[in-house]
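tokens incoming
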């Protein structure tokens, strides 16, 4: 673990040095982009609902920039964070030069999720899997696997489900993608109060990311764990495997067995490119700011001073992240109010990605400069000339 930490720190330092050597105008052109589509959605059964208050969140393909590979995040039942809320699934969209992932969220209205047919009530628009009646959620048995002896809040409304008869493409736009646009109601849903994925969902995604069997290059679009009864419960009873995989057409792989990808800036991708998580579009998608170990110069007062400087810088950087996140969210709201088309939305997303990268590069440089200031001064050596040797 200590060796890996050292390697990550070295990568961050090397990346910062590279950034310092580059002109500021070139920052916006740096960043790895995903140019190949995610696999099709696999076919799988829905596990039994574990109890009242759980809402189904469909599985999807996520991307691991460190592994250069898509991985499957299994569908799962999640305890709703607030009465009256529904889940809007995330989706992939083609942005003209790369694929961009729009994260899902909780809210009082189901918003746009790319027109993707995830099944189990998510058939492209809205949600047909259940409804709220005061403080109770009623499940539609026509599309949900519910044990009526345990859950009594049920009804049955037949829904035209083309899940197995139409394409299982998992992205919107581009060549071969779903050609759907948000409805007026879905655009209005963007103005409603939203809640990001809850902690259990974040843990679920992290567990999927570290499971090599869920990588598309390993399972070829047919994950062995397609759905779970609860988040991160990959080995518990009730887990189901995919019945049928989705087509996966990755590019030719390189010598290190990673799929070839292109960069905004011409040139080969280097290991230093992982330092800033270039696929992050918004500050909330960045990993937490790493706090260096407390200095140990042997002078307690000096160490305390250095620690205070570090905490002050970290607090300032957190605030700058939050400020940029708020600014970008306001721009999203304006786009919705203006009913901007898809091309304009994708353009703004690319600008957001550039802004996030620039902020991360700035913070990396600040951390490096602070650590350089905190280095102990070099010991002075005797500058006197050595005595001449006798012949």
């Amino acid at each position: 673990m200590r060796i890996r930490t050292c390697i990550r720190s070295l990568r961050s330092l090397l990346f910062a040095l590279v950034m310092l050597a580059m002109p500021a105008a070139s920052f916006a052109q740096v960043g790895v982009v995903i140019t190949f589509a995610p696999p099709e959605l696999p076919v799988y059964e829905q596990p039994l609902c574990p109890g009242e208050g759980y809402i189904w969140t469909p599985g999807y393909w996520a991307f691991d920039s460190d592994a250069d590979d898509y991985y499957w995040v299994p569908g799962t039942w999640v305890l709703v964070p607030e009465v009256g809320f529904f889940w809007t699934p995330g989706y992939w969209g083609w942005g003209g030069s790369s694929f961009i992932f729009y994260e899902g969220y909780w809210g009082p209205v189901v918003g746009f999720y790319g027109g993707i047919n995830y099944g189990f009530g998510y058939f492209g628009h809205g949600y047909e899997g259940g409804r709220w009646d005061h403080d109770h959620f009623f499940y539609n048995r026509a599309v949900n696997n519910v044990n009526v002896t345990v859950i009594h809040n049920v009804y049955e409304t037949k829904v035209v489900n083309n899940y197995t008869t139409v394409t299982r493409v998992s992205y919107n736009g581009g060549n071969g993608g779903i050609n759907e646009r948000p409805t007026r109601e879905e655009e209005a849903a963007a103005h409603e109060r939203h809640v990001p994925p809850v902690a259990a969902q974040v843990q679920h995604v992290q567990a999927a990311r570290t499971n090599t069997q869920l990588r598309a290059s390993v399972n070829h679009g047919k994950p062995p764990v397609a759905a779970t009864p609860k988040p991160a419960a990959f080995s518990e009873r009730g887990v189901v495997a995919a019945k049928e995989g989705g087509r996966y057409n990755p590019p030719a792989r390189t010598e290190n067995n990673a799929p070839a990808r292109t960069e905004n800036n011409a040139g080969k991708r280097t290991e230093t490119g992982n330092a800033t998580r270039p696929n992050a579009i918004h500050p909330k998608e960045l990993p937490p700011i790493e706090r260096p170990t407390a200095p140990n110069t042997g002078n307690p007062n000096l160490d305390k001073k250095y620690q205070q400087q570090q905490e002050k810088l970290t607090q300032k950087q957190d605030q700058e992240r939050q400020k940029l996140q708020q600014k970008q969210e306001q721009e999203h709201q304006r786009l919705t109010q203006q009913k901007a088309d898809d091309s304009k939305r994708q353009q703004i997303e690319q600008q957001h990605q550039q802004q996030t990268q620039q902020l991360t590069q700035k913070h990396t440089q600040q951390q490096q400069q602070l650590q350089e200031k905190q280095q102990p001064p070099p010991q002075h050596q005797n500058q006197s000339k050595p005595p001449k040797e006798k012949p």
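note: The helical segments are 2-21, 184-189, 199-209, 216-219, 300-338, 342-373.
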